[in-house]
Amino acid sequence: MKRSREPEDDLEPDSPEERFAGSDVAQRSPAKISELDPAVADDNQDDSLAMRCSLPPHKQPISFKSHGDYETHYHQFHTNRCLECHKNFPSDHLLGVHIEEFHDSLVRVRRDKGEHTYSCFVEGCERKCMTHQKRRMHMIDKHMYPKNFFFAVTRDGIDGRRSLLVDSGHHRRRSSASTRPKETRRRASTLDGSRAKNDPAPPSPDKGREEPEPKKNDAADTDMADLTGAMSALQFVPSSIRFGRGRAG
Questions:
Q1: pLDDT for residue 201 is more than 70
Q2: Could you tell me if 112 and 156 lie in one domain?
Q3: Which partner from 82, 143, 199, 200 sits 20 to 30 angstroms from 66, CA to CA?
Q4: Which PROSITE patterns does the UniProt entry name for this protein (predicted)?
Q5: Does the residue 71 lie in any domain?
Q6: How confident is the model at residue 35, as a pLDDT?
Q7: Which residues are paired to 5 by β-bridges?
Q8: CB neighbours (10 Å) of residue 95?
Q9: Could you say which of 79, 102, 136 is where a domain stops?
Q10: Beta-strand (E) ranges in the chain?
């Protein structure tokens, strides 16, 4: 008698290969496939994704390999940027000083009235000066700022600058100071040359000496001496006359 197959018998594998395949699927089912892991997929996507910045003043979008690089760029170039003139500043305080000096009409009216409107660059210092020159002196004397600091930062911003120190002006002053002695010596030599051309040459020692005049005739000198001796021998007063003595009485 042939036995009928039960439904449970249909579920059993007919061959060892099918039995092995079924066990393999059962073992792999709870495992996590790395290609479909969301965390791994996000990491791979971050490596290939390039973030771009198209904010002003960039004329062309700038690409970044990571979100951290983009945040660094944004804080450095776009956090303290003026919305009116699109200039960038190193801190929020200097951005406020820039807006106060160049974009605030009320402050401009107060400045025209002669009030002190130039704020100090040091955050927390409440000193206000009448001119930017006096503010510069205040910052050098009070806050020990270097003299070659870029004090025009509130006017020009920091776009295109690598340092807030002005080195070119220092070199220019030093070079001009070194060239002044050369120009002075050159000018003095030119004046000496012109004087030498205009002034007559000094007489030489030999020419300055007076040459003895040529002697006169020796015979004439001898005759004059003889005549003088003969004249002195003559007696023009009579012998009977005596000076200084009275007549004998």
A1: no
A2: yes
A3: 82
A4: ZINC_FINGER_C2H2_1
A5: yes
A6: 46
A7: none
A8: 20
A9: 79
A10: 51-53, 62-64, 118-119, 128-129
